[in-house]
Amino acid sequence: MSDVNLDNISRFVNELIKKGFDDVAAKVEVVDSVMTKIANSSVSIVQNWKRTIVDLYLAKNRRIFVLHFEPKSFKDLQKHVDSVISLADRVTESPIYAPLPEPSKVRYVEEVIDKRVIEAANNMNSIAERVIEAAHRENIESVAGMMQVGYNEIILSSSKGALLEEKKTFVQGYLRAFAQPDGSGQWCYTSTTLDLSGLESMAFTASRYAVDSRNRSEIEPGVYDVILSPMVFANLLEYITSMASAMSVIMGWSMFMKNRPGDVVASQLLTLQDEPRNTELPNFRSFDDEGVETCNKLVIEGGVLRTLLHNTKTAKYMNTTTTANAGWINPVPWNIVVRPGSATLDEMVSEVRRGLFITNNWYTRLQNYVEGMFSTVARDAIFYIENGKIVKPVTKIRIADKLGNILKNVAIVGRELYNIQWWEVGIPMKTPYILVKSINISKHTI
What we know:
Layout: H1 6-18, E1 23-39, E2 42-60, E3 63-69, H2 74-85, H3 115-120, H4 124-135, E4 142-158, E5 163-179, E6 183-191, H5 196-212, E7 222-228, H6 230-243, H7 246-251, E8 272-274, E9 297-301, E10 304-305, H8 312-317, E11 336-338, H9 345-350, E12 354-368, E13 373-386, E14 389-393, E15 397-402, H10 403-408, E16 410-413, E17 418-422, E18 425-431, E19 434-443
Parallel strand pairs: 7-12, 11-18
Antiparallel strand pairs: 1-2, 1-4, 2-3, 4-5, 5-6, 7-19, 8-9, 8-11, 9-10, 12-13, 13-14, 13-15, 15-19, 16-19, 17-18
Helix pairs in contact: 4-5
């Protein structure tokens, strides 16, 4: 859509109000990005996208519609909206309806438009080659992965008079390294600015783990003390923070259903914050999808649940106030940041008598949301630890436990935070290495 601007979007919202809707909000997101894919230590493909994504919120007589489009023009968009009008009276009233909030002044965080990111879009091959070279400083066979840079613009207009706009750049990437005969390692990186040292560190870490994890052996299933890398911890936190959404609690999809703010839900060493105003991470936002000014907030502080995440609907339903985490239907976290501890990774290893160090995972699945029962497959570099020393690399294991146990059994929190985001971690995070006591480990046989 070449006709995307504040005036056109505001005019479109006003037209929808004239058609009889009580509440209207339109969020338009323009994403201009370049992605480089790496295979066998070579650039395999470079792709360029410019997408215009339109999300509409429509409410009539307490009936709610949320629509998602990638239209060519506002005329195309209008055709789809007209088809909704005929359905408006046939849909059941929402039990959590609340009108959109009145707009208030939004204090914007500092805009992050890194010119180096824009320039990198025309120079992705050379950046990829630099990352590949950094990976091959270790004795590996090959690397594969992805790097993406881009520009993101968000425009929000509502029938209550909100008219807001925010722009930013972003960098994302992950790299997986392979070392003969069976070693592999992976790491990722995300930011709002271009930091080549961060991308090179991603490459070096993946390669180092690949080399160290060669010649793996199996271990017996059982209960182990486990060091989780920032990537693994971030993956689990994505599920945990989604359960801190008030909608997850209302719908019965959360292990926090039995809890209220003020309850102890984790180790006193763990503090977890939603930071939409942290401009180091790509999901920073000055306003949420209802036009409410965002704020950094404690979700868990010293092991204590401090707040659920709310939009105006869930807040009204639970007789509280919004936390500016809309999502028109489901409140969502923006950027997750863990408060660092004081330990190094080596100090964590020295504290483990019998345990494991897991650097990566995938296929995380919930068997019971209310109990937080889950399993996840450990992949790439995994190490067995005995009497404070890494003894050998291992293979074919999975974590099968409860998310609540992960939270409550945190014994040591690392002092360094890492920027994490890739396909298994959609929410940008700053997470450390952590040591978790007494985690159930089973075999993975596939």
